[in-house]
Amino acid sequence: MRQAKILGVGMQLPERIVTNLELESMPELDTTDEWIQQRTGIEARHYTAPGESGVDLALPAAQEAIEKAGLTPDDIDFIIYATLSPDYFFPGNGCFLQDRLFGDRPVGALDVRTQCSGFIYSLTTADCMIKSGLYDHILIVGAEIHSTGLDFTRRGRDVTVIFGDGAGAVVAGPAPGDQSGILTSALYSEGKYARELWTEYPASCATSRLSHDILDQGLHYPKMNGRMVFKHAITRMSEVTHEVLNKTGHTVDDIDVVLPHQANLRINQMVAAQLGIPEKKFVNTISWTGNTTAATIPICMYDALKNGRLKENDLVLLVAFGSGFTWAASLIRW
User: Fold this and answer.
1) Catalytic: 93?
2) Chain segment 170-185, per-residue pLDDT in tens
3) Domains, in order of start, for the chain
4) Does the first or last residue of the chain, that is N or C, have fewer Cβ atoms within 10 Å of its Cβ?
5) For the stretch 235-258, what's the b/e string if a residue is b when 16 or more beta carbons lie within 10 angstroms of its beta carbon?
6) Tens digits of per-residue pLDDT, 46-97?
7) 116 included as an active-site residue
8) Torsion over CA of 200, 201, 205 and 208, rounded to 10 degrees?
9) Which of 116, 146, 264, 300 is flagged as catalytic?
């Protein structure tokens, strides 16, 4: 069975940078730079311009990933697009990206809705497709726009200060020669905790998907039980790391680089301590991107490559936890 490998990585962030000081200047939000940094490690994040879409971010990230892979759009067989913030209720963003990238050439497109774990779920799906021989080159995108759906009052402060906008993309394909690439993955969900981190409306299960009453109550904004998410994230990210290591006969000492989901710097620091992995092996971008959910890991990967922190033959851990609750990990030989 052939192995799948990440061949190219791309990234796109909106031009507008929103610092903690800018958020501090919003009296209704009632926050400070010190408060945000102490609790999250975030100093700034990026917000889209009016009218800028998730696909607008995904397109240049995808084009860069294809170019870095030494390919052209004609070489891409399939799209997997991970997002919790689609541009429209339907159809999925993958179809809009297909049109922007390929025009009249039909290409399959799958949208993945597993939030912060979405990129690893998508990469694992692509891995299986490539190993089976169904497709050769798959474009995997994680892209989010949070800024247009946040509550900029004290009611939504704990969530609003965390999130940013951005996109990351990779191209996966058959590993050349005897290279190993993606070694294994593990994916999980536990829906009994879904309401601890969710956006309740618009909801097709409700008689009215959206109403003035819903808007007045702010039920269309994301809600989070921060303490519960923090606790579960540390536990599950540590557990799933041990699982993928055990599957491949490796130990934590073998890991060269960790590309974790960027939800909260304190979570990643606690995971490092619990696993006994030096923090210097963790690549953290949250200080300047905030939490970009499905986009965080490919953005992190791009940053690690740019700064020489990812090298050939490195053993790389991808690990994430998020809404659902969902969590996942992949182990890669770079």
Assistant:
1) no
2) 999 999 887 889 999 9
3) 4-174 (3.40.47.10), 181-333 (3.40.47.10)
4) N
5) ebbbebbebbbeeeebebeebebb
6) 999 999 999 999 999 999 999 999 999 999 999 999 999 999 999 999 999 9
7) yes
8) 140
9) 116
